[in-house]
Amino acid sequence: MNIKRNIIFALETRKRNGIPIIDNVPIRMRVSYTRQRIEFSTGYRIDTSKWDADKQRVRNGCTNKLKQTASEINLDLNRYYSALQAIFKEFEVQEVIPTPDQLKAAFNARCSNDSHALSQTAFFPAFDEFTQEEGSLNSWTNSTYIKFRTIRNHFMEFDPALSFEFFDESGLAKFVTFLRDRKGMRNSTVLKDLAFVKWFLRWAYRKGYTTNNACDQFNPGLRTTRKKVIFLTPDELNKIRNYTIPSTKQYLERVRDVFLFCCFTGLRHSDVYNLKRSDVKDNHIEVTTVKTADSLVIELNDHSRTILEKYKDIAFMGGKVLPVVSNQKMNLYLKELCQLAGIDEPIRETYYRGNERIEEVLPKYELVGTHVGRRTFICNALSLGIPTQVVMKWTGHNDYKAMKPYIDIADKIKSDAMSKFNNL
User: Fold this and answer.
1) Using one digit for the tens of pLDDT, what is the confidence trace for 241-269?
2) Beta bridge partner(s), residue 29
């Protein structure tokens, strides 16, 4: 049996505002057989001026925007051609004319075991370009780079041969299922990761790396609950302040001081970590925040001033004011400190994984991290009657929407306080 076929490589014909696109154009592999035609994405792009239409290959000595050379691209094009010819011969031996789906499945299966897989050549290098470009333009913090590195690892675990074409609505739904079932994520975490994925896919669409913009219409109906605001009450703060740290755990003293400084200034861990002696004035500190680049002036109170005085004669590396350890270590030590100090009120958390409603009851110390210091400052400041707009100037919040959960807590504290009159 002989299956007549024709395999060609050509640049995709595309227009923008009616004008043909000539830069960074996708190279397609077109297969025609038995009155059927299939197109494959090779995962490569090239400028039209660098493409030899007669030879159906990239001109010698040329490179594309991802710095992939003509020899590298052409080698893979030859490999794809040979792979398809071998697949057709296998079907001929079986005396079977493959359907388009069978041909695609056989080709993808063969390429998925190839170190030069189609989609890995395009998708993952494009993702690396995205993180480099967007990270530079938007001044990403290290934590943002880590988040996108995690997304990349999810992609690789999901399918090391991913392509842009995969992410239609069906493909996006499969990836969401993977995050939920294989990675065990809560719905709220899935939605956060999906937002990062959409950021990348929209960037790729704007760059012309894909014509697939299905992500704009994809909004899975995942149920979520409002995240509970964990903060320390004045009584709990005093428990931590008055706790006598064992002689074998003196490392917790510095952790406690840094945490209390956050509780009495509203600073994030990243900002107290970068706080320099030059930022400390007579009655206030001046900070340009790492996360939002806001310039803040935060007045000192007796508690924050006392902590600064304690360390004023100790020289820390880089001119830092306080002995701040990494966020990861501090989170670990804070849980230990709070457990020892008896911050163990049972806290019930409710969340969804898919359609499953899950409730967990944990001791409060398990939920304490560095950001609890900032939340503690906001909640206690509002409950003391300090005007919201004043608190926002200290914290850098620029709209009431972000402050609303804290305002609700302050209102509840006020309501509970009024009920104490009933006991008179």
Assistant:
1) 999 999 999 999 999 999 999 999 999 99
2) 9, 40
